[in-house]
Design a protein that fits this description.
alpha/beta; about 15% strand; about 325 residues; 7-stranded mixed β-sheet
């Protein structure tokens, strides 16, 4: 998956594939090793890792039935080495229990919007196409972006746009949405994109790409409860990683990366009270960080794969059980 905004034709190359393979591979070499790809998407990372490790078993999880259908076809050559689950990635422990797996050797989370979601214009993720305001990653359940823009109060919309889109003009956009829906429901991605553009000062519109990008990001995060799920998913996933196992997380905006940093760094920190002379065994770090801060794609990858530009990668190894 990748948070690529309005670039549905940008290709399906897995983001930071070589670096992810470098980070996860030391934990995936033993017979019986299990990797959970919690955001399977089109299965690009999964296919490469299965190819590199012939004894690896994969549990592929995705909330999007379309992505699962496509990844089933892509990963069919690996036969019974792959199991699939239609679930949110904060449900990884329940998925593993259902499939009879305890601890695993690897977890990969590639956050954001997947290629199928961007490629299908009617799903409403991209502001470059006119489509219904949907934005659900799992179209079998939940509210749509149209539900949000047509029913939330101006105060709620302002908060969402400011917090999830980091939008400076959140209040102006929320007021514009309210004026529009007072006359007729707001149901089109094109109409929303134009409304946002008109609500933002002209001088601001001249730089920084499409002015609707932040609003679309904010609505997508709200519709899919992305940050709440991530905040639950990371500790739950780490809990199932065996000692010596590894987790890698690809984020595509600062809000995701902030949650990832806080969770992994917190578990990699000795929590012995500062006034004690020696570390307490039960307070020793559970994780060892494998990346220095958040790693970015190389310039070469960004040129070859524009989808990668905003990616930030963090990884850690479990060094002890709590």
């Amino acid at each position: 998956m990748a948070d690529t905004g309005s670039e549905p034709g940008a290709g399906h190359t897995p983001v930071m594939l070589d670096r992810i393979a470098d980070l996860l591979s030391p934990a995936l070499t033993e017979p019986g090793a299990v990797l959970v790809d919690g955001t399977l998407g089109l299965g690009g990372h999964a296919a490469a890792l299965l190819e590199a490790h012939p004894r690896l078993h994969l549990v592929g999880v995705d909330r999007d039935p379309t992505a699962l259908e496509r990844s089933r076809a892509r990963l069919a050559p690996f036969g019974d080495r792959v199991e699939f689950a239609h679930a949110e990635y904060d449900e990884i422990p329940a998925v593993l229990d259902d499939l009879g797996h305890g601890e695993v050797q690897g977890v990969l989370l590639d956050l954001g919007v997947s290629s199928p979601q961007l490629d299908e214009a009617e799903r409403g993720f991209a502001y470059s196409h006119d489509a219904p305001l949907d934005m659900r990653m799992d179209r079998t359940q939940g509210r749509t972006a149209a539900d949000v823009v047509n029913t939330y109060s101006v105060a709620e919309l302002t908060r969402i746009l400011r917090e999830y889109g980091e939008e400076r003009f959140a209040g102006r956009i929320a007021q514009a949405i309210a004026r529009h829906r007072a006359a007729q429901p707001l149901e089109s991605t094109r109409v929303l994109a134009e409304l946002v553009r008109d609500a933002i000062p002209a001088a601001t519109r001249r730089t920084g790409g499409n002015p609707a990008k932040r609003t679309f990001q904010a609505l997508r995060i709200e519709v899919n409860a992305e940050l709440e799920i991530l905040a639950r998913a990371l500790p739950a996933a780490v809990e199932r990683v065996a000692v010596g196992g590894r987790i890698a997380v690809l984020s595509y905006h600062s809000l995701e990366d902030r949650i990832t940093k806080r969770t992994l760094t917190g578990l990699a920190t000795d929590t012995t009270p500062a006034d004690l002379p020696v570390p307490l065994p039960d307070h020793r770090p559970q994780l060892r960080l494998l990346t220095r801060g958040a790693e970015s794609p190389t310039d070469q990858e960004n040129r070859a794969n524009p989808r990668a530009a905003s990616a930030r990668l963090r990884a850690a190894e479990r060094i002890r059980r709590p």
